[in-house]
């Protein structure tokens, strides 16, 4: 029985870990913190796998766990200290990136400036999660989701253009 649980968990992890890492990175803008949150999320998945009832897609269930884990982390995080360190860390990392990676880093920097609910939605969009699943995770209708995504993209474009000029 234990082997079945381990095998099921391994498959779930392989299918979802990359997307969950992107979600966590969207919240933190930091590789180490994102990896910690990824591990914490999947620890909770492992501990609660027996409670999953197939009422939603397992990926939706995992996203909810990840979002709650990230929100708890952000609430406990000392915001001011993080806000002071983040630009410095971003500058140090920027030197390590090629031009394309620099654009990706800038995109994630812009995403980190969005409101929490917007970060969740745009990260899921970037990971090509289907809209019905994003609507389920975010708790809004699909029609409202499409409007929100449009507005988030406008906001991101403005932020991106602002940083590009700097």
From TrEMBL:
SUPFAM superfamilies xref list: Sigma2 domain of RNA polymerase sigma factors, Sigma3 and sigma4 domains of RNA polymerase sigma factors
The name on file for this protein is RNA polymerase sigma factor
- For this chain's UniProt record, which GO biological process terms are given? DNA-templated transcription initiation
Show the InterPro entries listed in the entry.
RNA_pol_sigma-70-like, RNA_pol_sigma-70_dom, RNA_pol_sigma70_r2, RNA_pol_sigma70_r4_t2, RNA_pol_sigma_r2, RNA_pol_sigma_r3/r4-like, WH-like_DNA-bd_sf
Domain (RNA polymerase sigma-70 region): give its ranges. Answer: 13-79
Keyword vocabulary terms for this entry:
Sigma factor, Transcription, Transcription regulation
> Start and end of every RNA polymerase sigma factor 70 region 4 type domain?
106-156
Instruction: Indicate the family of this protein.
Output: Belongs to the sigma-70 factor family. ECF subfamily.
* Keyword check for Chaperone: no
Q: Does the keyword Transcription regulation apply?
A: yes
Query: What Gene Ontology molecular function terms does this protein carry?
Result: DNA binding; sigma factor activity
């Amino acid at each position: 029985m234990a082997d079945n649980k381990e095998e099921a968990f391994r498959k779930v992890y392989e299918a979802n870990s990359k997307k969950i890492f992107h979600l966590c990175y969207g919240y933190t803008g930091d590789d180490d913190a994102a990896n910690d949150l990824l591990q914490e999320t999947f620890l909770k998945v492992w501990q609660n796998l027996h409670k999953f009832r197939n009422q939603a897609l397992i990926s939706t269930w995992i996203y909810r766990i990840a979002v709650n884990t990230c929100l708890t982390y952000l609430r406990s995080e000392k915001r001011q200290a993080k806000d002071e360190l983040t630009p410095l860390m971003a500058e140090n990392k920027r030197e390590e990136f090629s031009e394309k990676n620099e654009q990706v880093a800038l995109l994630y920097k812009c995403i980190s400036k969005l409101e929490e609910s917007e970060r969740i939605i745009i990260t899921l969009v970037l990971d090509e999660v289907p809209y019905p699943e994003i609507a389920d995770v975010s708790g809004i209708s699909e029609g409202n989701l499409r409007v929100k995504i449009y507005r988030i993209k406008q906001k991101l474009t403005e932020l991106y253009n602002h940083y590009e000029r700097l």
